[in-house]
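Quick bug: Neutral/alkaline non-lysosomal ceramidase output formatted oddly.
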Amino acid sequence: MLLLVSHLHRRLAIIASTASILLASASPLLAAELYVGGASVSITPDEPVALTGQMRTRISANVESEVTATALALESRDGDKVVDQAIMVSCDLIAIREGVLDAVRKRVQDRIPGFDPKKLVMNATHTHTAPVIREGIYELPDKGIMRPAEYLEFLADRVADAAVAAWEARQPGQVGWGLGHAVVAQNRRTVYSNGTAAMYGATAKDNFLEIEGYEDHGVEVLFFWDAKDQLIATCVNVACPAQEVEGRSAVNADFWHPVRNTLREKYGEDLHVLAWTGAAGDQSPHLMYSKPSEERMRKLRGLTRLEELARRIVVAWEEALQGASQERHTDVPFVHTVKTIELPERMVTHEESFALKAKVAELATDPKKKRRMQWHQSAVDRFDRQQAGELQPYEMELHAIRLGDIAIATNDFELFTDFGIQMKARSPALQTFVIQLAGPGTYVPSARAARGGGYSAIVESNLVGPEGGQALADQTVEQLKSLWSDK
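Here's what came back:
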């Protein structure tokens, strides 16, 4: 790739590179001048809300840290001609629930003439201390809180404002990419000697056998500078959901809040930090073993657990910055494809349906367990539909982006890390960013997890099972390869 040297040298390098491409009959995807804009906005409600992410009802007592939406606008131009575009918005939410993306795109459409709303994509950090968006999930008080439907409107307005602000702020920019490493996630599924598995299962038992799956400690980072070498935006891809403080009754952006604060203190208060969660359906920041020694070291450092996680991410980010700063690109290939794919839904067996119906009957008499009862009932409803011959493949919008040597791919789910590693390993890119929870999200387990069972790998947890996860990996890799294709 091209190094940022003098303007003349860069242009000569582009000409030489273009000639080489033509002679070799390689990909016609040529470099184009990159324009970049960023914006950040609070999506914190100004009144109490129900908090999402648990089976029980929680009403926010206060705001411990703001939840935010951060937008990045990208556009490539060949002279006056627009080559491609994207607006990417990272949100401190548990997921991008049904209706949210459409509401934002509708608001943006009339405010950004010439921009294709389909090229706006959102993702969630999966904080469990963000407002509820869907009605009817929890038993809520009639007064004194912002209703989920009201929050959805509030959210869509704020996110649209951020998207428009980022678009209007775009200017000629530079991009660089780098890789660091940080132990933030641990695989949270415990396997026992009888072959069963459990999320957050105790590891201090005599029948503890192993931690089930892989962990991905890579921290993939994108950096964007303006023409004056001022860092204006960064995208940080960590394969771990933001749920260290998931059980609290307060609005909280989890570990991304101290990450953003630390980076802004060191690199500029106007730095826009997009948090991207990698494939991490079986991951968590919670400690699974060696907890006493880990906690001892944290206390000796004088840090809270959120501060400790943020410290590790920032160190990895700075490792990546050291490399990326040496290779800043102003003219890069940039292409953004959007494709709707279908994934097979997970089938509910007769045996599973009997157990599910028993659980529904047991929970139906207790209003406090409404959320858990609905969870089981949804799988019963799916069984009945499937038995009637009505199969419903899961439709998902897949965004695949090439930006220079790097690739970006999105998915809707809490995708088990096995699939994310597979995508990265099979990708044609130098470096691949996998972004989960760009949609409403349910778990997609690996085959070994489904065999072990337990929450996150049982049928109630999955609209799409291991077969669908493999189909997602295959189709994502196929789409990425097309961005590097000669055709």
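Actually, after a second look the formatting is fine. Residues 1-28 have pLDDT under 50 and may be disordered. Closing.
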